[in-house]
Each structure stands twice: as C-alpha cells, then as structure tokens.
Amino acid sequence: MPAQPSPTTRVLLLAGPSGSGKSSLAARTGLPVLRLDDFYKDGDDPTLPLVEGSDDIDWDSPRSWDADAAVAAVQELCRTGRTAVPVYDISISARVGQDAFSVGRTPLFVAEGIFAADIVARCQDLGLLADAICLRGRPSTTFRRRLLRDLREGRKSVPFLLRRGWRLMRAERGIVSRQAGLGAHPCGRDEALGRVAAAAAGRHRPAAGPAGTAGAPVPPPAGAALAPRTAESDV
C-alpha cells in the first residue's frame, strides 16, 4: 500500500473540563474550530453509559462519544481541508443534520471538546498533532460558568444540570489529571494562548505519551496576532 501523503494542516487539540472556557479561547484564536461535542452519540444509543447509582446518562464519560468518527473528521481535515460533520442538539441528545466544514488552506485548526484529550495519542500516531492543551481553572468558577451557560441554552432539565454540576465540581481535579495523563498539557488561558500562537507559527509540539505532558510552555512569537477576546460561551 502506498504511503499516505504528509498532512498540509495540523490540529491543536483543546481539552479541559466542561465550562473551563474552551469555546471562548478557541474563538479568540481566530483559527477554524471543529466542535468535537458534535460527535456525541444519540440519546437512544444502547451503548451509552449511566452515572453510577442513577438512571442519568453519563454524558461526561468518553463512552458517550464517537471517538472514531471524530478522529476520521480530523484526519480528513488535515489531509484535504474539508469534511462533513454532524450537527448535534444537546437539548434533545440527538444529531439533527450534517454540515460541510472547511479549514481552507490554514496550516492549523483547533478541535475543542471535553474529550479532546482522548484522541491525543491517535492524532499523534497519524502525524496530525501540533499540540494538545487541557484548559484548567478554579472548580468554583468552572461550576458557575457551566451552570449559567447550560441554563441559558436550555441544554437539559434544571435538576439534571444541578446534579451534574456538583458531581463535576467535585471531580474536576481528577478530570484535569486524567487529561494530562493522556498527553494534554494543563494550563490557564494565557499560557494556552501562547502555545496556540507558537503552534500557529509552525513550532509544533507533539504531546508525550500517557505518563507525560505536552512539554514546557513556549512564549508566543513576536508579532503573533490573536483575535479579540469574545464573550464566554464555553463547552
């Protein structure tokens, strides 16, 4: 079988707990952004996991998400610059359509979502990875931001959102630790923006394996421009 051509574009994977500010940071970079949350499984999928001790679907488990489809989309974007992506409605837990998505000729795009760290190793093995970041902050701030967003967007019922919010706040440090173990470098917003700027300048930083992180922080190159800050609308 002939060797695959080298990708003309690479991906920066942006992970972090739900509500950590991923969507806002991704928008601020000015780069094309692939929403990995659109690769959730439908709510009637029999393989969906449940929260232990309840009948709630565990939407924070990687088993609620189609990693194979997400990796295929990332690979196609890196090889061809375009792909078809599902349109997912979180409020009804279902895919409601499909969109064409293009990154044009940009050498870098962002793929953001709470499960982005779960595909670090696969993207690295495929030669697609520029960097992998786990955005972190204070659990109390993440809780507030996530709850206000989810209530505003009507994502789920209020009791479900409160149960999920308290559970995630207690688990947040473990979530960050797990994602770091998968190869995503844990850091705050400013360091993350510096790493994005470095990757956009072509200083790719492949992530380490399960026991490590993605490397030491690199300051943004002189003159590197990022888009103006946007309102918080985090995933």
From TrEMBL:
Going by the UniProt record, its keywords in alphabetical order are: ATP-binding, Nucleotide-binding
Keyword presence, ATP-binding: yes
Cite the InterPro entries for this sequence. P-loop_NTPase
Locations of Low complexity compositional bias? 199-216, 223-235
Task: Please report the organism this UniProt entry assigns to the protein.
Answer: Streptomyces tsukubensis (strain DSM 42081 / NBRC 108919 / NRRL 18488 / 9993)
Q: Which domain of life is it from?
A: Bacteria
Q: Does the keyword Iron apply?
A: no
Q: Where is this region: Disordered?
A: 1-25, 199-235
Q: What is this protein called?
A: ATP-binding protein
Q: Name one GO molecular function term.
A: ATP binding
